[in-house]
Amino acid sequence: MNFDKLIEEKIKQAQERGEFDNLSGKGKPIDLNAYFETPEDVRVAQSVLKNGGFTSREVELLNEIAALKQMLVSASDEKNKQEIQKQIQEKQIEFNLLMERQKRLRKQK
Length: 109
Description:
This protein is an all-alpha fold.
C-alpha cells in the first residue's frame, strides 16, 4: 500500500469512529483572511519557527484574537462582552501595526 492510500485509510477509519464529529467550528467556513493578509515570506518564516517550537508575536496575536472571539460567543454578561470586544480590538490594532511595519520594511529593501 502506498503512503497516500495509507493516509486516506487512516482518515476514513477515524471518520467512521466519529473522531471528527466534535471539532470546534464544525460546519462553519474557516476564516483565512488573516493568513492571506500575512505576506508569504512571513508565513514561511513563521512556519519554520513553529516547527522549531517558536512562534512570532503576529502568530501569538492571531491565536489570542481567535480565543477571544470564542470567548465572546459564549459570554452572556454584556459588560463582559464589551471587555472582550475591547481586547479583540486592541490585539487587532497591534497585529495591523506589526503587519504595516513589515510591509514598510520590505519596501525599503
